[in-house]
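Bacterial repeat domain-containing protein
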Amino acid sequence: WNLADSDWPKFRRDNLGTGRWPSYQIDANASPAGSGTIAGAGVHNEGATATLTASASTGYTFSNWSGDSNETNGTITLAATQHRSVTAHFTLNSYTLTATGGTGGSVSGAGVFNYGTVAAISATPDTGYSFKDWTGDGIAELNASNTTVLITQDRNVTATFTIDQHTLIASGGAFGSVSGDGIFDWNSSAPILATPNTGYSFTGWIGTGITNPSDANTTILMTEDRNISTTFLINTYTLIASPADGGNVSSSASHEHGTQATVTATPLTGY
């Protein structure tokens, strides 16, 4: 046979005379365990070229080889000239969690987390606001102010808050009317108006949060449910009877609106 030196490994028999080609084990491991797989390891004939390819598991990224190779490429080649051993190193991916809140509150929990982490997030409403819900992916409970997010990629979550609303009930007596009932946003100023019937007067408001309780036309600060009232007082009038010379006139001095006043005139002697 006319063989070149480069062909020799393909034809050389082992020195035991078994008829088998000399071969070598190429070992490959992933670190940490479960972080990836390596294709191409095993027994290779002497002189053959082994191609090893490292593939990262979900959530990991290939980093580098160690052992009989220090390459940083995911695919390497090794000559089967002896037993060889390599380790493929993978790193756990990290992702950014962005948590924001709209008007009316604050949120916590943003940060950088490893793949597979269950990150806690919390929404805290300001005074006068209530938490409504979360929007975003990977959130365990959208309607819970304190919940978690599964980190498998970059996440962006937002908390929504709604302003509280409060009920205003305004009532008056039988001798006038009041206006201002309704539902109002927290911390708003609700107008209230008391209008007495003819012959009656406004006496003042009873309740809390009223800007000017003695003013029939005023406002009330709605920081909670409010129940206010007013009463109306009948007007009284003074009757002054002034007789001319020659007699006397008598009558009660004070009279309520709408009443009949009795006036008595008594002449003097000679009149």
